[in-house]
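Q: How would the structure tokens look for this protein?
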Amino acid sequence: MILAKVLGLLLLIGFAFTDGGTTNTKHYIVYMGDLSHHDSESAITANHELLASVTGSYDRAQEAVIYHYSKSFRGFSALLTPEQAQQLAENDSVISVFESRMQQVHTTHSWEFLGINSIHQYSQLPKQSESDIIVGVVDSGIWPESESFSEKGLGPVPKKFKGKCVTGDNFTLANCNRKIIGARFYSKGFEEAGGPLESFGRLYFRSARDSDGHGTHTASTAAGSVVTNVSLFGIARGTARGGASSARLAIYKACWFGSCADADMLSAFDDAVGDGVDIISMSIGSTPQPVYFEDVNSIGAFHAFQKGILVSASAGNSFYPYTASNVAPWILTVAASSIDRELNSNIYLGNSKVLKGFGINPLKMEKSHELIAGSAAAAPGVPKENASFCQENTLNPTLVKGKIVVCTQDAVYDTIVQSSIVGEAGGVGMIEAYPNARDFYDQFVIPATLIEPQEEKELQAYMATEKHPVAKILPTITVLKAKPAPYMAVFSSKGPNYRTPEIIKPDITAPGVRIFAAWSPVATEDTPDSENYNIISGTSMACPHVSGIAAILKSYHPSWSPAAIMSALMTTATVTDNTGLPIVNSDGAKSTPFDYGSGHVNPFAALDPGLIYDFDTSDVIKFLCSHGASSRQLKNLTRKLVICKNPLTPSYNLNYPSIGVFQMKGRLSVSRTVTYYGKGPTIYSADVVNPEGVKVMVTPPTLKFTKAGEKKSFKVNFTPLKKTKGESFVFGSLTWSNGIHKVRSPIGVNVLSL
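A: Here is the predicted structure in token form.
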């Protein structure tokens, strides 16, 4: 959803400002990362000293400063000339310098981590501009009574909206308002495949009302209204909000009981595009298909792209390489990463040692209880291995009663069910050994927590040396400023792109771990109690973060195409965490663009990206032609006859913000074109990080612009020095910089032959 440049997201962005006495100064943000050894007072002093180095005196520095950022990170905003800003950008202690332009408001902590509140507070957006943006959410519906969907402060429904408020079970016209301006539902495809909704024996509403919780959560994350002082059982207390909190919502319920039929999905896309939404948020996916033309998400998103509508979609939760879904280049594909908030339910052992645990556990143990391993509490005739997983009917109630049971992660039963089984057997608590526990947060029916391998070893050692080992599971506490953050979630689906490996996917990563948002109070599948808000993880949670930011960009730059918005988000993304080091996976292993795409989303920088890689439908057609698309296939996609022209444009020449080459045979040149978005003349210079075993040269190495809207083309020339193994990739990057903006593209190369 970050230090080095990632916590640059936490910067306050001010509005462009002209001093009456110094006409060439503007309001810039100078971000300098972690406070490190500085306290607030010393950070302010250091800020003044740095600023004085470019203004010429300490007094002038004090006059120039607008804001000091000195409580949780270091930086300042000040009135500077472009030349002074560039000098500061070149200083080793400065991470980024950018002009203050845009605004936003406050949110759940994931949005605070991204700094969205500051955008709303300081930008020059016309008051109504964001409220003219419509976010279409294709999901499991919405719980309209939630405070997160209040219409307070919103004006009339935008005239451009052509949608409907479709009534149904427990959903009347009164459930739509100036926030939820449209609601539709689709079940024909689902029922054709699985039978009537009634046959599932589960609570449902044949309407846009959400009985699952997923759709409510994603909608409120993208564009929920501001709600203060909310929490889950007192945990993660704060202000809940969506990224674009003044934007409108159009709801398209196409999913039932966690599944979504293709026919329903395509109908939802059809309506959403016709209704005139600006952004489509889709936290839905499937196993990648070999061709785009047989994927309804690709088809629906393509038509949205044609109409100028950006589709933001989740990459999936499949853990492994080649599993990223929604990988069409006209879809913005979002991976999941952490925020700097942990929810710790720790364990106090009898030897006074405290082990870190993870979980949403509001229940309080009044005293310590004896520990017993599930394998040591097997019911008569049950193998110890089965009992270790705490499966149904495997535990001996006599042995378990009044004790905390230590269980092992099970492939069949989830942790909520396991805690229920322990409780039904008479256990008073559960500790479960769970790799990457920090990525998975559940609510339990008894005091319970998840521990990672290191804590598991310590717990086992304690239990092995103590005759009567005891422990107490402590209620969850909220821990802020956790490090490192972000890290990549273990479950987040990874590249390479199954269909077209030269298009690096996912595109970007955003907060998707421990995300607090609105919930359906009748959804008890993942929660033991009815709640209006919930904390869950997944790329489903990451996607609406990006959707909300995209809505803000659309309000600030209404003429931008979907590709332009994608480019702004991707080329300004950050690849460092709040320790200033490269983003890693949750186990500490190195991450690559196949984990996070271009990096972690940076809302501030995306507002003013400097350069844009744009492409349109005609470019997409050339891309598809290069992959052997037939006239029939293109007709299915475009609804008109298309004949591929010879010679074909190589697919790696699609003007994508990232640069990928698959099965390179000898030297190769890749073409790109950038459009300048700025004021006055400027010069951008290329900086390349070579992939291992590949030499990269950019021609020309500098791009000179005189006015906004000007386009410049360049070539990226590759010379392979050694082959890569099989289908593996090596990575580098290309960054264009003018001293203020840094426009970064990841490079991924697979070398077949020299």
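Residues 1-22, 100-109, 124-128 have pLDDT under 50 and may be disordered.

The radius of gyration is 26 Å.

Upvote if useful.
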